[in-house]
Design a protein that fits this description.
The chain is of the alpha+beta class. The chain has 4 helices and 5 strands; from the N terminus they run ββαβββααα. The radius of gyration is 27 Å and the shape is flat.
Length: 167
């Protein structure tokens, strides 16, 4: 996915359970607008929360994980204790035709691995735009209803005028 590293470094295996984090540009601009965020500390929640303090070791570009039409939000990434992964595979043929072989390769490394949802980038982008398409359709329906009701009112007024004029 090529998320660009803007400052600092990425997480490594050596970070393990260390209290370090990578933040996105939006979080850096929000909490340290005119400062270098590398080395700064933060924790989730309010100042009296029991969450652990984390030290910023890197800043990455923003990702629009909540949808393409929404602004990026503050996000941070920490080393995972339980490994999990999202995998993107580029292919020149039908991507869903490779699902069985990819599952086989993953299970050959770890027989207990659970391969969850499998989808294409096109389908994922379509899902991200679904809300926008629905709202556009809804606006069109209400606009159409508005035009129909306006014309119905105009027609009734015209009829009233026609019946009034002969008297």
């Amino acid at each position: 996915m090529s998320v660009p590293l803007r400052k600092g470094r990425f997480l490594t295996e050596q970070d393990g359970s260390a209290n370090v984090a990578i933040i996105n540009e939006t979080m850096a601009k929000t909490f340290w607008p005119r400062e270098d965020p590398i080395g700064k500390r933060f924790k989730r929640g309010s100042s009296d929360s029991t969450s652990r303090w984390m030290t910023v070791i890197g800043v990455v570009g923003d990702m629009r994980r909540r949808g393409l039409e929404r602004d990026a939000v503050s996000e941070f990434y920490v080393p995972e204790i339980e490994p999990s992964m999202e995998l993107a595979i580029r292919t020149t043929t039908d991507p869903l035709g490779h699902v069985a072989s990819v599952r086989h390769v993953i299970r050959s490394f770890d027989g207990t691995a659970v391969v969850g949802r499998v989808t294409t980038v096109e389908k994922h982008l379509e899902e991200l735009g679904a809300a926008r398409r629905f709202y556009t359709w809804l606006i069109a329906v209400f606009a159409g209803l508005g035009l129909v009701s306006r014309n119905a009112i105009s027609f009734q007024l015209a009829n009233v005028r026609v019946t009034i004029l002969p008297q």
